[in-house]
């Protein structure tokens, strides 16, 4: 399958997930976001190395989708994989670092709140 | 003179990047946002780039939302965001002929990618990225400030150019669309 076919499958799962969020079905949304992330990951794998702008947009999409699926470990693993690519464009590198930073901070805050609540 | 009409219905039929379910949700949210402040029909002011000087006002009609729909869209932030997608995509289509052919996720939402109607999605190399935002109750000045913020945000992602930014103020009855080349 080509980038286009995988990406369009990912788009459909992501759209289903967004509709599920809007309709108040979080479990359904998480599952659809996970499938969207996996399809987008396959799309990136099938992408021509010359298409760097598309690579950057798709890489950010994969990481965002894993976070939205409630899978932070998968998101961080994917982010590290893409950050290791020399051809990853700067805008995507910046966005991935921002996503990692903001989600790490959010997790640290949540952990701190949890620790205070236990005391 | 007859005012051009903002087509919020059946967006998925003209924008291949939208599914029917999502298009219906965005439109429903837009109806709720308009219902909060106005009664159908109304004229929205539309400010754009010079070369798109097609309309300075557009007519919008919508069905009145029932109690069930209003209850389902009680979250103001989510509703305004979903509604802005419908209004800005329809406005961009009206003034430029560009339609959403694809979408990509961000941590807080999704970016739509635009191309002339009839273009098949092969990649994102030459598409326009669309930054969308909406304000429920805010004066014109706040809508303009939000557009400036969106343009600055788009400018920071230099490699993602070209980009368009669109902001709608529902209470203010104002749509702003600008291009960053």
> What's the end-to-end separation of chain A, in Å?
53 Å
What is the averaged pLDDT score of chain B?
90
Give the overall pLDDT of chain A as a whole number. Answer: 89
Number of helical stretches of at least 4 residues of chain B:
5
Shape call of chain B: globular
* Strand content range of chain A: under 5%
- By secondary-structure content and strand pairing, the structural class of chain B works out as alpha/beta
Radius of gyration of chain B: 15 Å
From N to C, what is the helix and strand string of chain A?
A: HHHHH
**Biggest interface pair, counts:** A-B, 39 and 30 residues
The order of strands across the largest sheet of chain B is 2-1-7-6-5-4-3
Subunit arrangement of the protein: heterodimer
Question: Could you name the ranges of chain B where pLDDT drops below 50 across 5 or more consecutive residues?
Answer: none
Distance linking N and C termini of chain B: 33 Å
């Amino acid at each position: 399958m080509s980038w286009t076919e995988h990406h369009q499958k990912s788009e459909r799962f992501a759209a289903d997930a967004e509709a599920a969020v809007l309709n108040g079905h979080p479990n359904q949304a998480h599952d659809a976001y996970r499938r969207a992330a996996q399809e987008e990951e396959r799309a990136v794998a099938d992408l021509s190395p010359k298409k760097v702008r598309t690579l950057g947009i798709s890489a950010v999409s994969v990481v965002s989708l894993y976070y939205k699926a409630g899978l932070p470990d998968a998101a961080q693993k994917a982010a590290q994989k893409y950050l290791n690519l020399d051809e990853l464009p700067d805008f995507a590198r910046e966005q991935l670092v921002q996503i990692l930073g903001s989600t790490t901070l959010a997790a640290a805050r949540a952990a701190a709140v949890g620790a205070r609540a236990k005391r | 003179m007859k005012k051009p009409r903002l087509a919020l219905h059946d967006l998925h039929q003209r924008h291949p990047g939208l599914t029917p379910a999502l298009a219906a949700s965005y439109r429903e949210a837009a109806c709720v946002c308009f219902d909060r402040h106005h009664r159908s029909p109304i004229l929205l002011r539309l400010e754009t780039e010079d070369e798109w000087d097609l309309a300075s006002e557009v007519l919008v009609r919508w069905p009145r939302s029932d109690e069930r729909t209003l209850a389902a869209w009680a979250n103001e932030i989510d509703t305004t965001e979903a509604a802005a997608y419908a209004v800005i995509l329809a406005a961009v289509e009206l003034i430029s002929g560009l339609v959403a052919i694809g979408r990509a996720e961000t941590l807080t939402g999704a970016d739509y990618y635009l191309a002339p109607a009839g273009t098949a999605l092969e990649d994102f190399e030459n598409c326009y990225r669309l930054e969308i935002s909406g304000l429920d109750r805010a004066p014109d000045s706040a809508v303009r400030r939000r557009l400036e913020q969106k343009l600055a945000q788009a400018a920071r992602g230099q490699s993602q150019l070209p980009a368009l930014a669109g902001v709608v103020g529902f209470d203010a009855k104002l749509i702003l669309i600008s291009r960053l080349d």
